[in-house]
Amino acid sequence: MSSQRTPTVDLGDVAPARSRHQGRRSAVTLTDGLAVVGTSDGDLQAFDVSADSGPPHRRWQYETDGEPSVVAAVPFDGGVVVGERSARGEIRCHDADGDLQWRYETRTDLGEAQQETRFLLPFVASLATDSDRLYAAARRYERRTDDDGNDLRHFESVVYAFGPDGTIDWTYRTDGSPISLDADENRVAVAYNRCPGDHQHGLVVLDADDGDPRWMWDPGTDGQRRVGDVSLLDGGAVVSSHGDYCGYRLDSGGRERWRVPLATPTDVAGDTVYAYPNHVHTSGEGAVFVTGNTYPEDGRETDARHPNEHTAAGLSLDGDRRWDAPVGGFASGLGTDGSVLAVPGAQNFRDRDADDHALRLFDVADGPVDTLDTDGVVTAAAVSDGTAVAVEEPVVYHDEGRERGAYRLHRVGTAKPCR
Prior knowledge:
Transcriptional regulator, PQQ_b-propeller_rpt, 1% helix, mainly beta, Quinoprotein_ADH-like_sf, PQQ_rpt_dom, 1 helix
């Protein structure tokens, strides 16, 4: 299925993306019939996207100062919380009308950026909520040189638990790089994608009440790469491993229940290539993993393509593979609602095929549901109560020189699985 014509609304101007990924600079979430978009200039725009409202129309807008970009957004306490990549690394809570309720600058804990360079700025990597608290994972990256002149990676990172009034209930600090959070009423799971320092656990499960570690797990592989994403499930968790390119289901305490290869090193025409499994989502019906770009074991460039790159893989809760489907390009995150996933397909920086730009919807058990083709790249998505929204950004590939797409929000109704 393909939804070619959907209601859209303009989000303003933004410099087009290029062939290489520049990291997240937009976010979107759904709350009570509103799509709240965090933009590349740090502003928020809220649109009524309820089914009976006609084309999306702006309900409110909040303008901020400085030069931030909003990279994370979740509903919370009747409003929305957003996280920035910016010099201040701010977390902001807004009510249902967009009014600012509280704000917190993570640079207070992470320190100032080493340089005013995008990837060195404090970064709110992930937000999650339960019925009582907001959880945020923030990090700051810097480069260091040791006594022998070797270039070293270093991270400062903090996981926060905020009450509805912005009070910090607890924090958990490491020198690892958090990439993803998941939370329920009892636990907060933290995935660390890089561990170059003293912290050597790709997954930490914290007590939601006090932030104390309950248990930890690691793929046990060489190097800094560890875990790409985590989804809590039945006392345990499902994780996508950057260390060995596999998916795991873990029982409480970290015992491995199953392990499934997803994009492990494979010989393609004499070149050994792999792809990182970047995302995972679970429901009572199964688990879905989403893989990213192809990389060679030697160097950075390759003409080979891993057969499982840019793939959504649906598994049963017993680890049996049910279905596979393409996602078109690199997905910076997932929109999820129960058994429904919205996967935004951004650049495939190796092939740069604009025909693959799309938002793709999947059902955990049954696979592909619908596809919304776009001119530009889709960089953020959310889904809730039968409505999916997606942020499209313009793109110019270096070997084409043509600007495709625009900065805009799409709305599409979810559908029953295609057969």
